[in-house]
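INFO  loader      accepted 1 record
INFO  loader      residues=319
INFO  predictor   begin
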Amino acid sequence: MKAVSIKESGGPEVLEWIDVEDPSPAAGEVVIDVVASALNRADIMQRWGLYPLQPGTSPYPGLEVSGRISALGEGVTGWQVGDEVCALLTGGGYAQKVAVPAGQLLTVPKGISLVEAAGLPEAVATVWSNIVMTAGLQEGETLLVHGGAGGIGTFAIQIAKALGARVVTTVGGPEKAARARELGADVTIDYRTQDFAEHGPYDVILDVVGGQYLERNIQSLAADGRLVIIGLQNGLEGQLNLAEIVFKRISVHGTTLRTRSKEQKAAIIAEVQDKVWPLIENGTVQLVIDQTLPMAEAAEAHRLMEAGGHIGKIVLVNN
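INFO  predictor   done
INFO  writer      dumping tokens
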């Protein structure tokens, strides 16, 4: 098969479409013939050498795919060769085939094409596991989503609205603000000219930025507020006022989906299938795809993501 390999740490030019060994399914796994994969910020970090991989993880980037099952490992039940699926991965999605634990498989929602489905598993599982399972967002609370026009943000806005929350989001420019409002955001804040802390307080903040946002995140949380940090685009360090955390009873969570155990991922996927898939199938939650490119053009897709002009997901398709 072919896969996108990272020949060394660096810019998009280090990605190469090369011949590699086909995967085989271990016990409890299936092999998927990949129709499409989708970009995530973690792919960029991995390419730059900033995302250490766990032992046994595929060296190829890609945290979500769609496709058809082509082989079943020992002990797999409930799935058949030929089933159309999408899946949450630990890596290896930028390829023609990938092995994945059966507990991380999802059916393709009705009304969603197989190519489009590649943009669902990582983003939806990230949003649900963090704003619901970790932060416990409740009806009537206010959620602040940083980066509301991105792959994570577009889902976070819609899922939070479906839960009955008020949603505020930071975006970069009027076009992204308009799209965020179309998706249900109650308030949009242009982070280039406005201070999100002035629009609080917030009950829950979903932060993909990190770094210097930490202090203002804490300042703008309400009493009993919850901050969930899932990205570090703005750096690894920030100021932290412990008195505010103590006296406002604030909870700070740092999470990543990729390093969770197979059992944890399976539990998240089960909830996503049960709670979110019906919202997608009835149109309450929409998949937002910016554009699709051939898998062999992963370098160009990375350039587009790093340029920051996209709205929603960027998808890679095997021709």
